[in-house]
Amino acid sequence: EYKKMSRSVDGLEGAGEWPIFKELLPDFNHKTVLDLGCGFGWHCRYAREQHATQVIGVDLSEKMLKTARNYTNDPLIKYLRMPIEDIHFKEEQFDVVISSLAFHYIKDFRNICDKVYQYLKPGGSFIFSVEHPIFTARAEQDWYYDEEGVRLHWPVDHYQSEGMRETLFLTENVVKYHRTLSSCMNDVIQAGFNIKAVKESLATEEMLQDSPEMKDENRRPMFLIMSAEKVNGE
Amino acid sequence: EYKKMSRSVDGLEGAGEWPIFKELLPDFNHKTVLDLGCGFGWHCRYAREQHATQVIGVDLSEKMLKTARNYTNDPLIKYLRMPIEDIHFKEEQFDVVISSLAFHYIKDFRNICDKVYQYLKPGGSFIFSVEHPIFTARAEQDWYYDEEGVRLHWPVDHYQSEGMRETLFLTENVVKYHRTLSSCMNDVIQAGFNIKAVKESLATEEMLQDSPEMKDENRRPMFLIMSAEKVNGE
User: Fold this and answer.
1) How far is CA A75 from the centre of its chain?
2) ipTM more than 0.90?
């Protein structure tokens, strides 16, 4: 089912939040890049198109990585199969660490922030997107409908109860972790980063012209996108 | 009606978000402090109790300031009546600028951030609380109830439609301004600040023991509280 999604078929251009994510990315020219939760490798290949010198993509799913490898013909992209939590690299190995919609599957986000900080060079960038805390709060992760099936509003509940959410993604049961916005931001800050920008996914005028059904995306934020910097000389 | 609220009668200790706000405050000893939207002056007097050398409180409401002056016997606290938007001070006049639950009445938050940045000394602190974007999104600013009046969940809608919300506060119609979380944070960052901490109001175990009815406060965040710093030597 995941393979049929627009983001899987059309790659980055099929992912609604990509324009926002892309805007936060630094210049990849001559940079070493790590992609946490690389999936089919779209971001890895994009980084190379933008002249990154070396890219490492990490993902837990061998299936995903198989597809990623099939799509990739580039010796300077390396795919590693492992849980994101288990990554281990050299200190200050990367200029840029990115992650798209992976961290809400991770229990211990602070640990990831600490590792990313360690593996980034001073001045390096950390850009990631996650499902928005408003989206993950209820296990249902769905709109509230009236009897005719009309979307009345987005319901929020259990916001301060952080932790596991057993939820349905397409046809499969998936375990996600809900974190409050403040936890997410403070984990990044306390790891040592400066937050450079915070974005929330939305449907632009252009997107609404192509797909009018996306208008509901502006009724509540689905994704949170952030860029942070490892401060120079700390 | 406002005068009867716990926060008006008991002061800071009657305001649920005060422990979180207090935790973010810097040492006030020998500091000059500006309080934007000072209301009855509780925070101004607190700053002086903590040995601030000088405190200026600004509020639009002459009624509020009258009460503030009645409560205050301290020549080192000065109250000014004006819209927060109109403040004008010397560059680098203050060590600390605070604001409690006032900025959601202000249309142009970026302008405030720019001014606060200008009036703060390098290394100075900016700590403020606002109604949470999740709280201000719908004009109703209320729970969604079933037919028996049970609170089903907190409804979110119109999130990306920033701007005016005509809403009811106690018995009065009040105009507030809804801003997304990302707008709020980026306004602070783009003014030049480093974000030091982001908090969301919640009911602690201790508060729940005193007032079990506060448990709903953990179902959705009502307030957003932030501390930011004017970076030294920029």
Assistant:
1) 24
2) yes
